Amino acid sequence: MLIVFCFFLLFGFVYWCVCVYYCGFCLPLSHSLFSFPFVSRYSSIPSPVWMSASLCENEANNELHLSAVELVAGAFAGFCEHFIMFPFDTIKTRVQSGSACHTRQALKHIFHDGGCTSLYRGCVPILVSAVPAHGAYFGFYEATKRIAGDTPVGIALAACAATIAHDTVSTPFDVVKQRMQMDSRKMFSNSLRCVLSVVRKEGLQSLFVSLPTTFCMNIPHYATYWLVYELLLRQMHDGSSRDYGNELSTEFLVAGFCAGGAASVVSFPLDNVKTIIQLGHSQSFASAWRYVLMRRGIYGMFSGVVPRIMYTAPSGAIMMFSYETAKSKLLSF
C-alpha cells in the first residue's frame, strides 16, 4: 500500500507541475480545513509574462498553487547543493555505518578503495532525484506558506508539507546512493545494477522501508531549518518581517549556513537510525535504534555529527543562495 501511495503521489505531483506550467491549474482547498489568513509574498513583484494569468488571480483566494518559478529555482538549487556537497555526504555515511570511527579514518578508507572518484560513488541517483525532489520541496513550501501565513506556525506547517513532498520522491534514490557509497568491494558497476540487486534480494519495499523514519527525521529538521533561516533574515533588517527587495546574497549564505548547522544537531540521532535502515542492517525504527545503542551506546547516536554539520551547514548556504538567486533572476524576466 505504501508503494502504491507513493507512486500515485509522485504521478500526481508530475501531472500537477505540468498543469501549473501550461494552463495555470490550481487545486482549491477547503477553507474549513485551512483557516489561516492568506499572505502573498509577491504582491509588489510583477509576475513573468509566461506565467498563467489564472495563477496570479488565484493569489487573492485561499488556494494552494505551485509557481513555475519556484519549481524551477528549487530544482536548480537542489542540483547545485548535492553536486557540490556530495563528498561530505559520503564521509558521513561511512562514519554512521560503522565502517569508520571518525572522519580521518573514513577518508583513509575512501581513498584506499578508489581515490578521489570514490567520494562521488552513488552521486548519479541522488543528482537525478535532486531536480524533481527539490522542485517539489520549494514549490510546496512557498505555496503552503502563502496559505498558512508568514508566522512561526505557518513556516513550520510549510516545512512539513515541503518535506513530505521531497522525501516521497527522494527516498528510493537515497537508498541507492547509500548502497553505492558503502560498496567498497565494487559489486555494483553502476546505479542501475545496484537498484536491480537491492530489489531482487530485498524486494521493492526495501527502497521505501526507511520512508517513515525519514519523515520523522526531516520534518523536525526542516521545521528548525526554516524557522532559523526566516528569523535570521528578519533580524538582519528591522526584525518584524523579511525585506525581500533589499536582501543580499551574503545574507542568504549566512542564514542558510546557520540554519543548516542548527537543524543538523536537532535531527542527527534520527539520521543515524535512518542510515542503518537504508543500509539493510535493520528493518524497523525500533530495531535500528537498538542496533545503534547496542553497538555504540548513547554516544553512537551522535557518531558522525561533525561530518554531518560539515555537510548540512554549507549545503544549507549553497541551497538557499542558489534558490533565492535563481528565483530573483526568473522573476526579473
From TrEMBL:
<protein>
    <submittedName>
        <fullName>Solute carrier family 25 (Mitochondrial iron transporter), member 28/37</fullName>
    </submittedName>
</protein>
<keyword id="KW-0812">Transmembrane</keyword>
<feature type="repeat" description="Solcar">
    <location>
        <begin position="247"/>
        <end position="329"/>
    </location>
</feature>
<keyword id="KW-1133">Transmembrane helix</keyword>
<dbReference type="GO" id="GO:0031966">
    <property type="term" value="C:mitochondrial membrane"/>
</dbReference>
<keyword id="KW-0472">Membrane</keyword>
<dbReference type="GO" id="GO:0048250">
    <property type="term" value="P:iron import into the mitochondrion"/>
</dbReference>
<dbReference type="InterPro" id="IPR002067">
    <property type="entry name" value="MCP"/>
</dbReference>
<dbReference type="GO" id="GO:0015093">
    <property type="term" value="F:ferrous iron transmembrane transporter activity"/>
</dbReference>
<dbReference type="InterPro" id="IPR018108">
    <property type="entry name" value="MCP_transmembrane"/>
</dbReference>
<comment type="similarity">
    <text>Belongs to the mitochondrial carrier (TC 2.A.29) family.</text>
</comment>
<dbReference type="InterPro" id="IPR023395">
    <property type="entry name" value="MCP_dom_sf"/>
</dbReference>
<keyword id="KW-0496">Mitochondrion</keyword>
<keyword id="KW-0813">Transport</keyword>
<keyword id="KW-0677">Repeat</keyword>
<dbReference type="Pfam" id="PF00153">
    <property type="entry name" value="Mito_carr"/>
</dbReference>
<feature type="repeat" description="Solcar">
    <location>
        <begin position="65"/>
        <end position="147"/>
    </location>
</feature>
<feature type="repeat" description="Solcar">
    <location>
        <begin position="153"/>
        <end position="235"/>
    </location>
</feature>
